[in-house]
Design brief:
CATH class of the largest domain: Alpha Beta
CATH topology of the largest domain: TIM Barrel
Strand content: 15-25%
Shape: elongated
Structural class: alpha/beta
Helix content: 25-40%
Number of helices: 18
Strand order of the largest sheet: 4-3-6-7-8-9-10-16-1-2-5
CATH architecture of the largest domain: Alpha-Beta Barrel
Distance between the termini: 43 Å
Largest sheet: 11 strands, mixed
Radius of gyration: 27 Å
Number of domains: 2
Length: 539
């Protein structure tokens, strides 16, 4: 799939596997290339029954254009996958060797015949064609190869094709090699390699492997080319890219987009006390860290020496943003490159989010279901775990501060000073202090914030009014709520938010100023205020 990219591996922990048949509504496949055959079953186990198809590297195109069966093929693995109801569809690769790719296309009839024979011999379920690095001049030959394969392989077996993402409609180079529409006439589906927006080269921009815009435009291109939606599979990356920002290493190696397994990011960031951040525009995660003088760190065989680094990578938040796209566009499902590089927690949420089942504790028809989905999609409120939202749980002051700072796009700021002694070391310290500096909130005293105390309705109204500074008009002389007076400290803020229509009473003419706010109520309030929030973000 991407032999030009060198990945660096750590062995993932193995999770137990259930023999329950997969119930995934949307299609999901992944490639197997890293590790060794004795780890392949463990790699599949880690996916928690999410996959319909596994695509191992069994078929290579040699330099002279002939088929080579790789040493990784094991019939025991194929048999085991079949017992589990999964298809084994090996990918055919030239590993970015253009000579091999061209020679294979020139010998396409024989190559197709040999592939069909190998599928029959080893009881495989088809082939995924992944020829890369060949120019647009061979586009018609590539399409004809797919046609010949379809004729040579039984109709109940799969013929799928990995295609370069083409968000900008390129017609030249290797992007122009794939005739999306004509290929789709013969293939079961196209697996769009919607990654490598940045790549390993001094010419690469420093940025995401796959921003949300890059991903969406890649899907839109396929649809606009006339590919049936049920033949579009969107490929996600399980890796990131690393740059050294202040010149080469002490060993004179430039680090310019080095491919890094997602499993390697948090350990290096933690060791050097870096920070993991999220870019709202690209819906991508990145991390900064500095290796001090005299220290070093190995990523595989590459030695990182003293200096400043940035790595753009995929984590739960960025992957969840991408997992919404198949349902949004009505396409077949997802693929991924590649197993062994995802963090183990990925499969706690992958299948549910792919199928729009974002939180197991928010049942269909729940009064705030749509509100929760909206704020989650915006990234304003995250789950309490990968798969739960805890809608009836009361908000703490710390949680409220984080939600508002995140929603207003200020979560990448660093406070200039630290005022609250009781938030030192607290998970939300940065956001609380940022909110204080921005004038969003105040402590219970100048030096105490009480982060774990519950956030009540009058406090929340006051924070919101601090942020948006609503003008009050025609305020009546009597309180609009039976349980508040116009002289209460929070009443001006409560009335201002009430007048905007964002917050209502709790019934019987009361506001419930001391009543704690739940996470579901916060989600509903945030959606009602979304126009104001988005306008504030744009300022």
């Amino acid at each position: 799939m991407k032999a030009k990219i060198i990945f660096f591996i750590v062995i993932l922990g193995v999770t137990s596997y259930s023999l329950v048949k997969a119930r995934t509504e949307l299609f999901n496949m992944s490639y197997i290339f890293f590790g060794s055959p004795n780890t392949y079953i463990n790699q599949v186990n880690a996916t928690k029954n999410s996959l319909h198809v596994v695509s191992p590297n069994y078929f290579d195109i040699t330099k002279d254009g002939t088929l080579s069966i790789t040493w990784t093929l094991q019939t025991s693995f194929i048999d085991e996958m079949h017992k589990r109801g999964k298809k084994v569809v090996p990918f055919l690769s030239n590993h970015w060797d253009s000579t091999a790719g061209i020679n294979g296309l020139n010998k396409r009839k024989q190559l197709a015949a040999d592939i069909a024979a190998a599928i029959e011999k080893y009881n495989l379920d088809g082939v995924n064609v992944d020829i890369e690095g060949v120019g647009a001049a061979y586009k018609d030959a590539h399409t004809d190869f797919i046609k010949i394969l379809r004729q040579a392989i039984p109709s109940h077996k799969e013929v799928s094709v990995a295609v370069a993402a083409n968000p900008n409609g390129w017609t030249a180079g290797w992007h122009g090699f794939y005739d999306y529409k004509k290929i789709s006439d013969y293939a079961d589906y196209l697996m769009i390699m919607a990654y490598d927006e940045s790549w390993e080269s001094p010419d690469s921009p420093i940025g995401p492997v796959a921003s949300i815009s890059f991903s969406e435009r890649s899907i839109q291109y396929a649809i606009n080319q006339g590919v049936p939606k049920d033949k579009i599979v969107y490929g996600l990356p399980f890796y990131g890219r690393l740059w050294k920002l202040d010149g080469p290493t002490l060993e004179n190696k430039a680090i310019t987009g080095l491919g890094v397994s997602s499993t390697r990011v948090e350990p290096v960031v933690k060791q050097f006390r870096g920070s993991i951040l999220f870019d709202d525009k690209t819906q991508s995660s990145y991390a900064n860290f500095t290796i001090p003088h005299g220290q070093s760190y190995y990523i595989g065989s590459t030695k990182l020496t003293e200096g400043k680094y940035v790595v753009w990578f995929e984590n739960e938040r960025s992957l969840k943003a991408k997992l919404r796209l198949p349902a949004k566009y009505g396409i077949k499902g997802t693929g991924s490159w590649a197993l062994y590089h995802e963090t183990p927690d990925t499969w706690n949420y992958y299948t549910a989010w792919l199928n729009g089942k974002y939180f197991s504790d928010v049942k269909p028809g729940y009064w705030a279901e749509n509100n929760i989905q909206y704020v989650s999609q915006q990234g304003w409120m995250l789950g309490t775990t990968s798969t739960t939202f805890s809608p009836t749980t009361n908000l703490t002051r710390a949680q409220g501060a984080v939600i508002l700072v995140r929603a207003l796009g200020k979560d990448n700021l660093t406070p200039k000073s630290y005022a609250f002694t009781d938030v030192k070391g607290h998970w939300a310290q940065k956001e609380i202090e940022v909110a204080r500096e921005l004038g969003y909130l105040h402590g219970v005293t100048p030096t105490r914030f009480a982060p774990n105390s519950l956030l009540n309705r009058e406090q929340l109204a006051t924070i919101l009014n601090n942020i948006f500074k609503y003008n009050v008009s025609d305020q009546p002389s009597e309180s609009v709520f039976l349980d508040m007076t116009t002289t209460d400290w929070s009443y001006p803020a409560v009335f201002a938010i009430y007048q905007q229509g964002h917050i209502q009473g709790i019934g019987d003419g009361k506001f419930g100023p001391k009543k704690s706010s739940t996470r579901a109520e916060m989600a509903a309030l945030m959606e009602r205020m979304s126009a104001d929030i988005l306008a504030k973000r744009a300022q």
